[in-house]
Amino acid sequence: MDVKRVKQILSSSADINVTYNGTSVWIDQLHEDGKTATVHLRGPLEERSDVDISELEEV
Fold it and tell me: Looking at the record's lineage, which domain of life comes first (predicted)?
């Protein structure tokens, strides 16, 4: 995924399905470097991880 699309998803009120390594995640924030973002798993666990945005996929 590219920076422009991550920004669009973050500013959208729609429920956009994004995956990281095949697991559905929410994008919490894009980091200033424009290459990484903080995400957390959808569901009851709110474990957050910093990931490379190139590894995020829109389903």
Answer: Bacteria
On the question of pLDDT at 45 being above 90, the answer is no
Domain 3-58 has CATH 2.30.30: yes
User: What is the pTM assigned to this prediction?
Assistant: 0.89
Given this model, what pLDDT does residue 8 score? 98
Domain ranges of the chain: 3-58
List the helix and strand counts (H, then E) for the chain.
1, 5
User: How many residues belong to the chain?
Assistant: 59
Q: Which amino acid is it at 27?
A: I
Helix (H, G, I), strand (E, B) or coil at 27: strand
